[in-house]
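Step 1: inspect the first sequence and its tokens.
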Amino acid sequence: MVPGMQSPSGPLTPAGQAGIERTARQNGVVRRTAVSWISLAGTGALAGAAVLYVSPLAVLRHGVMFLSEDSEFAPGYSESAFRRVAAGDSEASVRAALGAPLSDFSAEPFIAWLYAPDPQPDFPATGQADPTVSYTVIRFGEDGRFAGGFGQIAHGSSGGLLGAQITLSYGDGVNSLALKNAEIERLKAEKATPEQIEARFGAPIARFESLAARWLQYSRSPGSKNYRLRLIGIDREGRVCSKRRELYWD
């Protein structure tokens, strides 16, 4: 699975899948919680709950330190060439520098608004909410109209240096705005504008815009494990609009 994008149109949240296992690898312990995925107005959300064990010593920004990784890169890829790719570069120049990607898939440009109790300074750059806190993400499509929403509720306690146990809950209305499927469908049918959403829920704490109409994927995990994510977003003009270089925890 390509991440992202908490949905690559996202950051993506997978939708319509069942029987997925969430694995928490913390403090040398592997813990799996079986969960089911349901569709939340086309954006995807988890139903049920998962338990995540987090050690402060292992947290790296929005992720958790890998205990192992399994990365495969496209033929012709080099880290130095990837670092030199800049916004505005043509797709042709990217392919000349890095070779053909492992995959090339389409995406829809979107704007995401984040509602959460605490500041999340990385969201405007990444479009990804902190996975250990309660939040709601509302999305607008390329036409500027309401396209969907998803989120979660987090419960837990800090455990100091011994770590924390955080329970994440998902489902209809289980998010920081208590936004339910019925209301999501109504807002979509009404083609609600950003002004109407702000009048209803207030101003978001952060905003993110993705201009990517396609993603060039230069890395993957053959064994569906943790890996070094390398993605380049291409806009509708055929120019680089974003890059993602991070550790992906599966």
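Step 2: inspect the second sequence and its tokens, then contrast the two.
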Amino acid sequence: MESCTKFSKITKLDTYLIISGCNRIYPVYPWRPDRTNLTGNDKSMMLPWSEIDTVMFDMDGTLLDLHFDNFFWLKLVPEHFSKHHGVSEEQALAHVQSKYAQVHGTLDWYSIDYWQAELQLDIPRLKHLITDKIRLRPGAEQLLKALAAKGKQVLLVTNAHPISLQLKMQHVRIENAACPYRAVLRAAHQFSSTQ
């Protein structure tokens, strides 16, 4: 079967799993790694796996749980903004949330460079403080191994800034030998466009 790796447009994935064959795209709403059965025996996931050659995943909230990001943006950043700028934590939270709202849905929302300039904080350093919170969602590793065993190409398509992507990949080790599947990583920043 010919592999389909050319995409003229990548559709916003949110927390959905998008599975593509050469002639079709099968969205699975919502993806639950604990309920994915590649044999086709699970009635909730009746997909024609024999026709599917490529599986695309969003990263945050799909393969990775959101605890790291939620803690980082809603607790750690306001806490450090408060200390750095001499305002209360409540004022800091209100300020950063208003800044978040201004750029939500744009590449700036995901840009470490943007947030460093906007908040005057060392965002990469702060992210490194809490890498213990970066985790795969339950069942994600098993699903990825099952896809590899079936010879499926796996694409990780994300809006994450390259620094965030690298940090997360180092700590969950999606691409290492312990999870022997071929993942192609594509960050929206490479294309200057969100998913």
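Step 3: confirm your contrast with the notes below.
The chain has a mean pLDDT of 74. The CA atoms of residues 85 and 92 lie 8 Å apart.
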